[in-house]
Protein 1
Amino acid sequence: MSATEFSGIAERRIEDANLVRGVAALTRERIERVVKAVTRGEAGARLAVYHETCMRCGMCADACHYCISHDGDPTYSPVGKMEQTMWKLLRTGGRVDPDDIYGMAQIAYTECNLCRRCVHYCPVGIDTGYVMSLVRRICHRLGVVPLYIQDTAHSHSGTMNQMWVKDDEWIDSLVWQEDEARGEIPTLRIPFDKEGADFLYSVIAPEPKFRTQLIYQAAVIFDQAGVDWTMPSSPGWDNSDMCMFTGDYEMMGRLKRCHFEMAQKLKVRRIVMGECGHAFRSVYDVGNRWLGWKNHPVPIVHSVEFFWELLTEGRIRLAKKFEEPVTIHDPCNIIRGRGLMDKLREVTHALCSNVVEMSPTREHNLCCCAGGGVINCGPPFKGVRLAGNKAKADQLAATGVHTVVAPCHNCHGGLEDIIHHYKLGMHTKFLGDLIYDCMEKPGAA
Ligand code: SF4
Ligand code: SF4
């Protein structure tokens, strides 16, 4: 396949105000300078090895849901995306036109979920997600980032959370959910800033913003399990990280530092995270490494693992099981990224009588197409996500069930859009939804 055949992105350009504004301010000299600074100054040997070892064999094409969903169009294949972006930048030494950067940004931010499925299919293990992250890093340093996701990154830098939640609104949300939950469990408290607690519970900003019932449910689960927990009242409570996805690594580092320093200040034994995949990637894999931390300074546990502990230790006892057949969606960041596939299944089977596996599944599962910050690029690119994951719609429909269990916020957003668009007649559930519904609540009024 020659480079000249890769004309796809020019034909599918989507108007985004911030991409237009950013590209208008570029010069060829500035592009070349930034490309060299990132590819030679930040990336090092890993990128060079990937570039030199990629055989353009195309074996990665069948791994990518965008490529599968577009009938094998090579411009959507992992190698096709690298060819139109990073390989072109390396081949030219960064001597490209400002207009080229528009297309590269559109590919890197909206046509790759950084899901890393393709790594498993490449005979030499090239991580296209890593390469696309570096393209995003270049675009960030050039000021060419889609408007909606840039807004979330600005929110992080202004408020230390993703959704412009003010400090008093955060506390109000927790007190509100505590009040609500006390209607069900009269003695329940959400403990603020409890020094020395066994764990700090951290969530992502969409929870206080528009999924507050998840805070309610977590409070009931922890209270009735009798665990020693706390939530912070000040910045550091949000573990999400859109800066990791825009390529603003300096801000990503500030966020991680704030998060872990909060846990250290409260002298908790560990952090338990809510059901989010990308946040886990940012604290467990990317942000900590950017800061040069070999290990994060406070142990961190994803809620799939924590729920598994509560169930296997008998701290949660079940009053019933969920009887309707369910299927399991494996979120990329905690399955390919952390290997929680067995624990996810043990928890789901403990809660549900009838589990129907998707095909393929576990580390081979297809991404929801929302991850990697793609859903955060907003309405202009929603159609790209829906068309780019017909493969997921087919996979969901083939299960024949109506309930999808997915322990990740982004996956819920992506799957709900796919379910609605392809009229699949399904709905999504978090593990917390199922545990809350099925557990014994001895303290209930
Ligand atoms: S499978 Fe690997 S070596 Fe082959 S084209 Fe894809 S990235 Fe390159
Ligand atoms: S979306 Fe996933 S499978 Fe496709 S290129 Fe990106 S990392 Fe690879």
Protein 2
Amino acid sequence: MTNLAVDLPGLRLKNPIMPASGCFGFGREYSDFYDLGKLGAVIMKAATGSERFGNNTPRVAETASGMLNAIGLQNPGVDKIIESEVDFLSNYDMPIIANVAGSTIGEYEKVAAAFNQTKHVHALELNISCPNVKEGGIQFGTDPNMAANVTKMVKQASNLPVYVKLSPNVSDIVAMAKAVEAAGADGLSMINTLSGMKIDPSSKRPLLANKTGGLSGPAIKPIAIRMVYEVKQQVSIPIIGMGGVTNAEDVLEFLLAGASAVAVGTANFQNPFICPELIDELPKILTKYGFLSVQDAIGKGAILYE
Ligand SMILES: Cc1cc2nc3c(=O)[nH]c(=O)nc-3n(C[C@H](O)[C@H](O)[C@H](O)COP(=O)(O)O)c2cc1C
């Protein structure tokens, strides 16, 4: 039998598949479709210090090659998330990863400290890379020193393992990865969406009220694979890979590039059963390509740079 289990800092995964932040809410809607305990883990929607209403609508648009979104971190605030959503998710047998966002380092610290007080959150995913919020987000995600600084402060504010979620909207992703690793990150999560835009010829206006948004879906997979591959050569902390996964071969591709687990985002909107389907398909695909376990495949596509 193919072994799907993977151990990562703070996370014992029964399989490497988890829904990506913001594409699964807090799981309630999906829990009507299947047992969330089947998932390797769940990454919750971003939490900020207090409630955020997000950007004006329209904030989602389809393109010929993926989806654009500029939700703007809408969420009920960390306290409410802990009170109702973490409590709800803790009924299922899987680790919970909390996605932490903020406009200032102090806000990141506050959110991280609050999750640290709960007994059901197993790790933090530090969202330094949201391209759609005016203050904070983008600067943290594109400047190695600021990314390192927020990582260090969050590590001090909490005992939970911290997976820093990197933005692809940079010219040197390896420099970002190395900076947060040096600052104490326990793992990386990559990639977030790529900055994009769509203009409607009839109205002659951008389709999103925010004008620009984050592109996700299959169009970004080759970029994500390249970035995971490059970063894997240069850091020793594990990577949760994501960007455009729609089938089990995509999952294997991320593992081969060096990811230890894989998150699925946009595909959940097209097919709410995508995560359990991938979990069921993965053993067949691993066997087809000669692997006995997930662990066996991690990084096997990565040849060291000379
Ligand atoms: C509608 C939407 C909302 C998102 N919200 C968040 C979020 O709150 N925090 C975050 O770190 N990433 C967020 N993301 C990014 C995803 O977690 C993921 O990194 C990205 O979409 C790439 O994966 P995919 O191509 O499988 O969707 C969001 C993506 C979408 C499409």
Protein 3
Amino acid sequence: MIETLTRIPVVHYSNLKGRTGYSIKIDNQEIALFKVSNGGVYALENRSPHPKGGVLSEGMVSGDYVYCPVYDWKISLVDGRVQAPDEGQVKTFKVEIKEDIVFIIV
Ligand code: FES
């Protein structure tokens, strides 16, 4: 099967604040975009894996993790994995930054 990937420009890198989450809608998909304190940018599906999950873009960012705003689950921004003792995984998206433009690959 051939998968077609699309690079979608979403925001200027210089407009992103550190340790902050942003909500972006691409087609019908809500994506949470985060800039962490070392300058890295990560994109995840904007929904907590918790059964009654909230939106991750409103969570608190610490290092390479976001803490879910509702149940305080700790989720890796790098691979989307929920940290123990909780479990689950959030879908992640590849991010590219070129000349101040942040692209999400969907
Ligand atoms: S609703 Fe997210 S684990 Fe919280």
Protein 4
Amino acid sequence: MQVPYEIRYRRGVHLPALDLWIDARAGRDLAVVSHAHGDHIARHRRSICTEATRRVMALRTGSRRRRRAATAEPPGVGLAFGEEVEHRDAVLSLHPAGHVLGSSQVLVSHRGVRLVYSGDIKLRAAHTAEPLEHIECDVLIVEATFGRPQFRFPPTDAVVRAISDFCLDSVAAGVTPVLFAYSLGKGQEVLSHLAGAGLPVVLCGSLFTVTEIYRAMGVRLPSAQPCGGTLPPGAVVICPPHLRGRSWVERISPRRTAYISGWAVERGACLRHGCDAAFALSDHADFDELLRYVERSRAQQVYTLFGFAEDLAHQLRRRGVRAEALAASRQLELGLG
Ligand SMILES: [Zn+2]
């Protein structure tokens, strides 16, 4: 099939025929934003995104007033899943991607062709994100973060149990467990899975504020307190990875640290990330799940993007799928697993 319009990647996906930007990394007049992780956002004049994404994006890119309002204002401004908006002679809609709360795949219907941009996707059920919707399309742009066969994640139940045991064992030994998890998505997922452990939880930095946005959007989560001051007895601390080595964390003593990411399946993950333990709880699809996602899309042309884009395109071609890499790298990639 001939792709009816050009697809470019230049700090964001660009569809020139529609002059439409998706996940642009530089400010644009109009951009569709799949979700609010730092490597998908910029300060745009107008954004098309879900309400959860809009709020977290306001927290990260907005003025002080907008940042304050992000946790307080009533919902209703963002686009609902499945709601259609017209753009020139195309129709756009957002569909759950399963990655973090409000994360979206973008469906563009244009001149009889259905194009889907996956954004970051997770196929496994999550406690704190809407389940991914499989969409059939003609052209698929799919993320390739874990697009190599060595990235196969263990069963989620086993990983979650191991994280809980790590916390309970540490507390029983009089040691504070410190879990490093990204502040949008992974942190809330870990908090939710720790509910059964019955331990008090302290959230560091932006993780606390983003969690308040989750609560405001109706996600039920165990209680937690912001960091600062004295830790309650037996507390678990959840911290964004960039706070590793900061003085507040360094002052927690004695402590045991754990890195929580899909990258934990790599050999030497503890050493590489300077932690005592590593647990492979991911908010992305693993290699097998990426293949399954592509297969279910029934796309006639696939473009891979980010991470191991060349490898995934090669693996798809071996399986008879017409695939090529759109862009092979992005900054921050290794931090967001
Ligand atoms: Zn992401």
